[in-house]
Write a structure and sequence with these properties.
With about 120 residues, this protein is α+β, with helices and mostly antiparallel strands. The chain is built from six helices and three strands, in the order H-H-H-E-H-H-E-E-H. The protein has a three-stranded antiparallel β-sheet.
Length: about 120
């Protein structure tokens, strides 16, 4: 099974939490997405990418915001990508990231109770 975007897709199947209880399977599918966002570095990375000019950022643009090594930043970005929160595109030697707005909107709808 391809796990890429699996968590983000799990959110689209569910009614808002305030409308009906989540099934066990739905909850298990959403947990990786929430865990990916629960880390302070990853939450900041999503924010930095989303607010970056043009809505995308090169990994080279993100390194200076943290006192972490480039491989550590790349690891966090990989987790966010695998959870379905970020798209990525390799251009030459650099990888560029863009927030998957629909994943965040679906998560907001799930938690916020919007239909």
């Amino acid at each position: 099974m391809n796990l890429e975007f699996h968590s983000a897709q799990a959110v689209t199947c569910c009614a808002p939490l305030s409308r009906e209880p989540l099934s066990e399977a739905a909850a298990e599918g959403i947990v990786p997405l929430l865990k990916a966002l629960a880390d302070p570095v990853r939450l900041r990375l999503v924010s930095l990418v989303a607010s970056h000019e043009g809505g995308e950022a090169c990994v080279c643009d993100l390194n200076d915001a943290f006192q972490l090594s480039q491989p550590t930043i790349s690891h966090h970005l990989k987790i966010l990508h695998e959870a379905g929160l970020l798209d990525r595109e390799k251009r030459g030697v650099w990888v560029y990231y863009r927030v998957r707005a629909e994943a965040l909107e679906d998560l907001a709808s799930l938690i916020g109770g919007q239909a």
